């Protein structure tokens, strides 16, 4: 097994969980009522290793919406379909240093990277674009199901409707990109935006989502089913951008301190990937000023204090 003494590993994760649980700082996202109403005290950790060892603690069976943690997977889907050259004619791969919904594009008039809103809408415009919107959404949700080891994901329609109703900034970003000719020809803006909001509104729990994180840690092959969901080159590209851009405008700090690819979402979701070792799903709804889960970040900090998981710890 990849973690020989898994029991003592789990014991230490439990200790870190209990220490982190005490942190009640931060505020739940309140830009839509569906997120504002979530019980802020919830906290879940789920681990899945690349050979299928599993451990969960806390609210790991409670569903939450993916929000921005849908972005890496949409980027992977675009890469698988079109290859990196085509995808990166439409989206950059540089951290923006700005908030996830900043009205800003790079010097070529493209989104800075696929891990912020503008870039994620661009990924959505690229996925299965010849097909109708229902089949395109099916493709995304079937991919999440395969990543989670065959467990169906849910869809939170109220979150979707709220997102769509309060989407002025995202519409502004999309029009800005259209003005710069950033989208592929004949892109339907409204459809693309709605597709993006739908992806953000997919729901699952930490237990199942840890398998998705483990699939990325395992180079695209699901450790439970053995199914290859993404090519390793796709996952490599995705993890590179999660490392440099996955934690909003805290990404540089996170790469420095934690040294691992991760992606957060305003629901309090955090997907952490330890390449060749394990995926960890963390969920706790209270957010810091940039929009990352407070406990999520603290858990990661404590984790690398305990274990040599920082990618340069081996030096
Ligand atoms: N639905 C949110 C938005 O598009 C998701 C952003 C996020 O998780 N940071 O604004």
Question: How would you explain this protein's 3D organization?
Answer:
- This protein is an alpha+beta fold and 315 residues long.
- It is built from 12 helices and 8 strands.
- The protein has a 5-stranded antiparallel sheet. The chain has a 3-stranded antiparallel sheet with strand order 3-5-4.
- A hairpin with a 3-residue loop joins β7 and β8 (278-283).
- α1 packs across α12, α3 packs across α4 and α5 (133-147) packs parallel to α8.
- The two termini are 24 Å apart.
- This is Glutaminase.
Write down the overall mean pLDDT.
98
Strand content: 5-15%
**How many distinct helices?**
12
* Sheet with most strands: strand arrangement: 2-1-8-7-6
Instruction: Give helix and strand order, one letter per element, not per position.
Output: HHEEEHHHEHHHEHHHEEEH
Low-confidence stretches: none
Largest sheet: 5 strands, antiparallel
Query: What distance lies between the first and last C-alpha atoms, to the nearest angstrom?
Result: 24 Å
Radius of gyration: 18 Å
Can you tell me the overall shape? globular
Give the name of the CATH superfamily: DD-peptidase/beta-lactamase superfamily
- Level-2 CATH architecture: 3-Layer(aba) Sandwich
What structural class do the secondary elements suggest? Answer: alpha+beta
* Total beta strands: 8
Number of domains: 1
Give the % helix. 40-55%
What do we call the CATH topology? Beta-lactamase
CATH class: Alpha Beta
What are the bound molecules? glutamine
EC number: 3.5.1.2
GO molecular function: glutaminase activity
Catalytic activity: L-glutamine + H2O = L-glutamate + NH4(+)
Protein name: Glutaminase
């Amino acid at each position: 097994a990849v973690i020989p003494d898994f029991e003592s590993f789990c014991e230490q994760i439990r200790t870190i969980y209990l220490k982190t649980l005490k942190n009640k700082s931060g505020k739940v996202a309140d830009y839509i009522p569906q997120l504002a109403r979530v019980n802020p005290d919830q906290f879940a950790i789920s681990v899945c290793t690349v050979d299928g060892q599993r451990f969960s603690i806390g609210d790991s069976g409670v569903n939450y919406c993916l929000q921005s943690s849908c972005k890496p997977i949409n980027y992977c889907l675009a890469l698988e379909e079109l290859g990196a050259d085509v995808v990166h004619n439409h989206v950059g791969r540089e951290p923006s240093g700005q908030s996830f919904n900043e009205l800003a594009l790079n010097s070529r008039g493209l989104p800075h990277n696929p891990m912020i809103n503008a870039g994620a809408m661009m990924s959505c415009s690229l996925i299965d674009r010849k097909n109708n919107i229902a089949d395109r959404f099916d493709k995304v949700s079937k991919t999440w199901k395969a990543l989670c080891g065959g467990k169906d994901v849910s869809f939170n329609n109220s979150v979707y409707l709220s997102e769509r109703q309060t989407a002025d900034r995202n519409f502004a970003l999309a029009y800005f990109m259209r003005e710069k000719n950033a989208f592929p020809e004949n892109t339907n803006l409204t459809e693309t935006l709605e597709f993006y909001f739908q992806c953000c509104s997919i729901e699952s729990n930490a237990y199942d989502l840890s398998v998705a994180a483990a699939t990325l840690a395992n180079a695209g092959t699901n450790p439970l089913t053995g199914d290859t969901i993404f090519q390793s080159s796709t996952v490599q590209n995705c993890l590179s951008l999660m490392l440099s851009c996955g934690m909003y405008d805290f990404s540089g700090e996170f790469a420095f301190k934690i040294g691992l690819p991760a992606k957060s979402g305003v629901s309090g979701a955090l997907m952490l990937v330890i390449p060749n070792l394990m995926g960890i799903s963390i969920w706790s709804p209270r957010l810091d000023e940039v929009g990352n889960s407070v406990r999520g970040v603290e858990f990661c900090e404590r984790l690398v204090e305990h274990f040599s998981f920082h990618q340069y710890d081996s030096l």
